[in-house]
Design brief:
heterodimer; A: Phosphoenolpyruvate Carboxykinase, domain 1; Phosphoenolpyruvate Carboxykinase, domain 3; nine-stranded mixed β-sheet; 30 strands; B: mainly alpha
Chain lengths: 524, 64
């Protein structure tokens, strides 16, 4: 409970609407976490995993129709339709009021409404933002416990301020046709109905930390971006931080936790975040980044000791697994983890063998795991002022044409690199044909809370605020030859490119500074 | 862009020709791709920043 009347007034309104049997204010304590975990175990929604191999870990299966974010029913409900822009689905606030809000009426009868006070960003940071998520899903509560700082600490951070994000969430009956996720950027408000999954339901993540925050950031003069934050330490012990945007399924989590290849002696990497960066200029004119999240919500399939050892180690305790396979000894399994067991239970709860046509784990299956457990977590990952960014990377997934790495010639040229980002599945024989590239500017296409044209302008404006903004680079790990084979080995070897970038930031590299135009001139 | 020798290639499993491919740009194809990008940017209408359009034009000029 709280004495903050702005909060209690809003919560009371939502209680009147949703009509829960009980209201539970989350205090974020271990006892509360244990109580909710036990409840889900008793209900059969959680399965405890093998205590030796996966201590304090649980498996959850979502509704088979509820397995990913649903962009088609994700809306930006700005006051003016023109402010949502061509890349967003629009619903007017009035329409949302008539079409969506009634779905919540009485939706929590027989249920408990959990009130989750949470902070996005480190506790005590002036750049952190408080939000409240109201939800009828205990599974969502337990995930939010990992992904954000929740409970009493959040109430303390907020104090008597009325500056908080409001999130009203109900899983309803999980019917796909009732699903809707609405954002009201001018009111800092989120409504999510009918889904219990991931970015639809963990409102602190995409809804708050990207869509609402990007609109806030534009008003307040900072950046909320779909970026990992990685520190690179050279053999002399100096650490450089980079922020990198990649579209989904392009290896952000792997790069955020990358282990340098053995040949790069003396180099170390430090993880600050794998998905979202909030960045603002400090008094010294440098761009400082915080990770607003407290955990990783990583894609499980493909994660192995070879592709991301740090992620595997992080998720090996105190974590929640959603929609992966599980064997008869309560060990989880997913495609790419290692050799398949002879039999297991698949993500739908059905028996599975390696002969099954179905996948054991859903391709979007996840682990929810505390960032603090990551072996490579930076000692500065919770610094209230954030970490200073030396370079910003924009990477797509381009099979043809786009080089391994390009240095921008100016901030605006770098913004163009970001705005031109895209993905293309296979190499075209010759030119890239229009329509084969899926554009995803700054990897923000599903996450920009306002008109993307204005968003590009905001990026331009941010470059003018200081004398020396970070250098921007374009990268592409995914070039293929004519047979569809990758030309670049990627994974740990990407650190070699980061090394070159650091050299360039330090003003090293050949004084002739080969630039894109020169490369173009060299090629007939 | 770096030249091959600017990258630390010790222990790198990427052949010289492959590295060469990904460190150079096919100029005509690059120009063609900018036509496509320009088309894409049209969806943002008059809210697409002039400074960015200038950047596209500048690059196209250098590519011709």
């Amino acid at each position: 409970m709280t004495g903050n009347s702005a909060v209690t007034t809003w919560v009371d309104e939502c209680v009147k609407l949703c009509k829960p049997d009980k209201v539970h204010w989350c205090d974020g304590s271990d006892a509360e976490r244990d109580m909710l975990t036990k409840m889900l175990l008793d209900r059969g929604e959680f399965q405890r995993l093998n205590e030796a191999n996966w201590p304090n870990c649980y498996l959850y299966r979502s509704d088979p129709t509820d397995v990913a974010r649903t962009e088609k029913v994700t809306y930006i409900c700005s006051e003016k339709e023109s402010d949502a822009g061509p890349t967003n689905n629009y619903l007017s606030p009035a329409q949302a009021q008539t079409d969506i809000l009634p779905r919540y009426a009485g939706a929590m009868k027989g249920r408990t409404m959990y009130v989750i006070p949470y902070v996005m960003g480190p506790l005590g940071s002036p750049y952190s933002k408080v939000g409240f998520q109201l939800t009828d899903s205990a599974y969502v509560v337990l995930n939010m416990f990992i992904m954000a700082r929740v409970g009493k600490r959040a109430l303390d951070q907020l104090g008597s301020s009325a500056d908080f994000v409001k999130g009203l969430h109900s899983i309803g009956e999980l019917l796909p046709e009732t699903r809707a996720i609405c954002h009201f950027p001018e009111r800092n408000e989120i409504w999510s109905f009918g889904s219990g999954y991931g970015g639809n339901a963990l409102l602190g993540k995409k809804c708050h930390a990207l869509r609402i925050a990007s609109a806030q950031a534009r008003r307040e003069g900072w950046l909320a971006e779909h970026m990992l934050i990685l520190g690179l330490e050279n053999p002399e012990g100096k650490v450089y931080y980079i922020a990198a945007a990649f579209p989904s399924a392009c290896g952000k989590t792997n790069l955020a936790m990358v282990i340098p290849p053995a040949a790069l002696k003396g180099w170390r990497t430090w993880t600050v975040g794998d998905d979202i960066a909030w960045m603002r200029y400090g008094k010294d004119g440098r761009l400082y980044a915080i990770n607003p999240e407290a955990g990783f919500f990583g894609v499980a399939p493909g994660t192995s000791a070879k592709t991301n050892l740090n992620a595997l180690k992080t998720a090996s305790a105190n974590s929640i697994f959603t929609n992966v396979g599980v064997d008869e000894n309560q060990n989880v399994w997913w495609e790419g983890l290692g050799p398949a067991p002879a039999k297991l239970t698949d993500w739908k709860g059905n028996p599975w063998t390696p002969d099954s046509p179905e996948k054991a784990a859903h391709p979007n299956s996840r682990f929810t795991t505390p960032a603090s457990q990551c072996p490579s977590i930076s000692p500065h990952w919770e610094d209230p002022e954030g970490v200073p960014i030396s370079a910003i990377l924009f990477g797509g997934r381009r099979a043809s044409l786009v080089p391994l790495v390009v240095e921008s010639t100016s901030w605006n040229n770098g913004v163009l690199i970001g705005a031109s980002m895209g993905s293309e599945a296979t190499a075209a024989a010759t030119d890239t044909k229009a329509g084969t590239i899926r554009h995803d500017p700054m990897a923000m296409l599903p996450f920009c809370g306002y008109h993307m044209g204005d968003y590009f302008q905001h990026w331009i404006d941010m470059g003018k605020k200081v004398a020396n903004p970070p250098k921007i680079y374009g990268v592409n790990w995914f070039r293929q030859d004519e047979n569809g084979k990758f030309l670049w080995p990627g994974f740990g070897d990407n650190v070699r490119v980061l090394q070159w970038i650091i050299d360039r930031v330090e003003g090293k590299g050949e004084p002739s500074k080969p630039r894109l135009e020169i490369c173009l001139a060299n090629k007939t | 862009m770096p030249r091959q020798q600017d990258l630390n290639r010790e222990g790198l499993d990427c052949s010289g020709p492959s590295l060469d491919k990904i460190l150079t740009v096919d100029k005509p194809a690059w120009k063609a791709s900018f036509d496509e990008t320009r088309e894409y940017f049209k969806i943002f209408g008059d809210r697409f920043p002039t400074a960015l359009m200038d950047e596209v034009s500048g690059l196209e000029k250098r590519l011709s």
